[in-house]
Design a protein that fits this description.
Blueprint lengths: L24 E2 L2 E2 L16 H14 L5 H21 L19 H20 L6 H16 L12 H16 L22 E2 L16 E2 L54 H15 L8 E3 L32 E3 H11 L8 H17 L6 E3 L2 E3 L1 H30 L4 H10 L10 E3 L21 E6 L13 E5 L22 H17 L9 E5 L14 E5 L2 H14 L5 H26 L2
Parallel strand pairs: 3-4
Antiparallel strand pairs: 1-2, 5-6, 7-8, 9-10, 10-11, 12-13
Helix pairs in contact: 1-2, 1-3, 1-8, 1-9, 2-3, 2-5, 2-8, 2-9, 3-4, 3-5, 6-10, 7-12, 8-9, 8-11, 9-11, 9-13, 11-12, 11-13, 12-13
Length: about 600
Amino acid sequence: MNRRISGAAIAGALLVAACGGSAGTSEGEPRQAEGGLCAIPDDAPSVARVWIDEALDAIRLDFPAPTVHARNLFHLSAAMWDVWANYDDGPATTLFVDAPRSADNVDAARTDAITFAAHRLLTHRYDGSLSRTATAQALDAQLDELCGVDASFTPGPESAAGFGLSVADQIIADTLDDGSLERSRYEDVDYKPVNEPLAVAESGTTLADPDRWQPLILKEALSQNGLSIPAGAQTFIGSNWGDVTPFAISPAAEGPPIDPGPPPLIGDPSTTDEYRDSALAVVQASGVLQTGLAIADIGPAGHGNNTLGTDDGDGYDVNPVTGEPYEANLADVADWARVIAEYWADGPTSETPPGHWNTISNGVSDALFADNDRVEFDGKAVGRLEWDVKLAVSVNGALHDAAIAAWGAKAHYDSVRPISMIRFLGQNGELPIVPGLSEIITNESSAPGERHEALADHLGEIAINAWIGPPSIPEIYTSGVDWIRAVDWVPYQRPTFVTPAFAAYVSGHSTFSRAAAEVLAGVTGSEYFPGGLATHIVAAGDLQHEDGPSADVDLQWATYFDASDEAGRSRIYGGIHITADDYAGRLIGSEVGQAALAKARTLFAH
């Protein structure tokens, strides 16, 4: 799906250039000393945006490790910020390189320095990408387009371009041993799962500890963005990430950097019932994925406005920007649930959750600058380049810390995913029985013409009314909901993916999304999207997991927090998380986002 957001103020937003500089030469040689080697295209908002977009393209072609990509986006943003701040005669504070500079044409110097810093850093970080050749070619082509030089060009050390290279090189050196295990391609060989892998194609599961994460084995494995994965059991991605050097939150001496407390555990008598009920709630969400059963208002008039860490909201009466009531936005509930499960999943050719929130930020920026040369950033009127640089370091600082906080909790609690929970409880007769949702297969219920007829060979087992699994040809068929054995349940995902390769608690999507939403609300001075409404239309038939939606679905959000909450909730319908994972992630994300915003303000010193 296209990840660009639109809306009353976002649709048709103009792309304006806030910086530039001549690409002129002196006696046939590039002018380097004070900038002017590079120039951005007329249709580019800023040189910072050019390179953020290059980073997002690199992510879309790489293995979807959100931790790694959040770190790369942050360090790219830090490089751009340090360039900006070193050419600023104000009170700004740098992150890695403190080397004040001056130039007659500061905009031109910044353009050169940011370009060479971004090209160097992204080339280094994506040298190990699954699509390293294509990414390197794209980065080199962008350098050539902006500056008229190839990747072998070496700028003078005293030039703005040379300064940009020195900034990138310093960041690369300073972060090589930041806990990410970059030297070993981010692989944590010390983590060992306590449970044997679950073969998804087989019924049931065996768990040594039903509270702990279980890797999966698939017949054919593809990453969430569609790239082939070597056969075998999943390996926990990012189990070391809680030890990575953060932007704003405090590193933990032991345990997770931000400890939400444990999830519901079947091994804890005080939360055993909550564990079982949480698994059943995912079954219930799976059972919603049948079209034609219910219609709901999925727009701001009937949806959103939740208290932090809950889904207690019932929408808004009035758009505060226009002063008019929000119009009803009716949709089939199953269509909406399937759409958000896929839209927020950041699946094939996507930029992962950190990149997704960069695309949202880009849409917000374009809308705000559509008719303005200057916009207030955290109460100060700024031009487009300053806006893009400051927003990037703020949002990506928050997303970087969100990865550290979420994966710190994931590794610490090592918690189980719904596919293991539901199968385990089903085969052991411990899934709560609720008529119409989860039932015991009996002679009567499986008699010809009865609801469990197809399960007559499994008397005494637990059947659940849920999504029946991927169709044979997803472009043509829709699976729908029916009675299946609990031991065969799979989440609403592609059969080549099923569940991410890391523990559940807390939800990374929820943490990333709330952290970014906090920053966007803080820097814009409003929790509402520009115009009080953002929208993304998913066309009929545009789903990936099965045919659908049955009609166009217009996703709408009044506030950044509404979008964030929907991202978290989508993981329940997708069968990836239980509610505790989502709510705890939202709470952590809020704390992370506010800390990042406070830290960014100290950098900007205004």
